[in-house]
Amino acid sequence: MWDHVTVKFSCERCGQTLHSDVATSLLDYPDTIAFARTHGVDVRETAIWELPLVTNDETTVTAEPFRVRVTYPLDGDELTFVVDEEFTIVDVSGESDRYDT
To answer: In what order do the strands lie in the sheet with 59-62?
Structure first.
């Protein structure tokens, strides 16, 4: 379908835009932070290219309805997000159920 899906962030104040892949865009989400932390990874202190949970081949896209699924694998556990065309999280499943955020 699509080779690469990006998220576009726009600053209403200055007009600057930033494009990011979906997996990278979800790194600041509380469930991602908690999931990584329980596996000894601090996503806020680790360089993005050193994060073991960000991979380009973890995104699956469906057209109708438009959905992007991102799965973060760590140490045999998985955390999966599904987002829609507005980058709204429509589902979170997996190991996040065990973590306090």
So the answer is: 59-62, 67-74, 77-83, 89-94
Non-local CB neighbours of 98 within 8 Å, separated by 6+ positions:
38
In the chain, domain spans: 6-12+26-98
Please give the helix or strand (H or E) that residue 30 lies within, else none.
helix 30-38
> Nearest-5° angle of CA 3, CA 54, CA 91?
80
Residue owning tokens 């993005």: 48
Helix H or strand E segment including 36 = helix 30-38
CA pair distance 14, 26, nearest whole angstrom: 23
pLDDT along the chain (101 residues), means of 10: 73 90 88 93 89 71 86 90 91 66 45
Write down the pLDDT at residue 62. Answer: 83
